[in-house]
Amino acid sequence: MTGSSVDPPAVVSSPDGDDRLWVSEWYRIAPRTFEQFELFFEPGTVYAVFAEESFKSLLLRRDGRARAARDLGDRYRSATRAQLLDGERSFEVPADEMTAIRLTPGSLLTKPRLTIETSARDHTLYHGSRSYDVESLCRSLDRLYADSHVDVATADRDWLAFVG
Fold first, then answer.
1. How is domain 10-154 classified at the CATH fold level?
2. pLDDT digits (tens, 9 = 90+) for 71-82
3. Dihedral sign, CA of 99, 105, 107, 111?
4. pTM for the model
5. Number of other residues whose CB lies within 10 A of the CB of residue 133
């Protein structure tokens, strides 16, 4: 679907020519697994493309998950909406349903957190690297959603919560 490799986070073009921000290696926590997603932010929609899952058990966990997810994201960076949502666990969040995007930096004990808030539910994902630059991502998302009602901000780390 693409020609050359680009390192995320990167602004790439969607099939209709609009800018699309691709961020890589985010996961959500399911009861027994970690579900890896590649995220594509467009002015009208956020797409979460399911990359793979890994079991929480250290014995069953697979090495190279981040690289496999990034390779999938590279293949899908210029994909159509239908291609992005092809997997049964992939999902989209329309911008008109979003109220806010909150980014929380990582620390020695916790992973960076990205929360997409909607009126119906929140979608919370974590990044695998504790040192991921959420400030830079926040600035990029703020520019992307500057003309919308979506509030984009970094949130202070709750030092009493050790989740993530």
1. PH-domain like (2.30.29)
2. 777 888 888 999
3. positive
4. 0.85
5. 15
